[in-house]
Amino acid sequence: MELWVPDLARAEATFGWILTELGWTEHQRWAAGVSWKLGETYVVVERSPAMTGPHDRMKAGLNHLALHAGTREDVDRLTRESEANGWRLMFADRHPHAGGSDHYAAFLENEDGFEIELVAG
C-alpha cells in the first residue's frame, strides 16, 4: 500500500508511531518517502511531486486502513496514546463499537485526513 501525503515528516510521525507500535519495522527510506514492513506486507508514505490535491477519504479511493491491533487492552492503550502522536479519535460517541456491537476497534484520523481502524482480535 502506498499513500501519497502532503507532508512527509508529519506522515512519518503519525504512521511511523502506529505501525511501530503494531510491530512493523522500517523497511526502506529515501528523500521523498519511507516504508514499514510486517511479514510480506508493507506500507509506504511518500511525498510525490505528481500528487495533485489533498487526500479525501470520502471520495473514490482509499477510505481507511484497517489493521489488527492485538487485544482489546492493546486497542485501548493505543487509543489513549494516539492523540499525543498525531491522531484523533473518530466516532467517540460510539467508541469502541463504532463498527458494530460485535466489533471492537478504534477509528483514528490524522491531520491530513487519513483514517486508521485499529481492530481487536
Automatic annotation (TrEMBL):
PROSITE patterns: VOC
SUPFAM superfamilies in alphabetical order: Glyoxalase/Bleomycin resistance protein/Dihydroxybiphenyl dioxygenase
UniProt cross-references to Gene3D superfamilies, sorted A to Z: 2,3-Dihydroxybiphenyl 1,2-Dioxygenase, domain 1
Domain VOC positions: 1-121
Keyword Ribonucleoprotein: no
GO molecular function term, any single one: dioxygenase activity
InterPro entries cross-referenced by the UniProt entry: Fosfomycin_Res_Enzymes, Glyas_Bleomycin-R_OHBP_Dase, VOC_core
Keywords (A to Z) from UniProt: Dioxygenase, Oxidoreductase
PANTHER family: FOSFOMYCIN RESISTANCE PROTEIN FOSX (PTHR36113:SF6), LYASE, PUTATIVE-RELATED-RELATED (PTHR36113)
Protein name: Glyoxalase/Bleomycin resistance protein/Dioxygenase superfamily protein
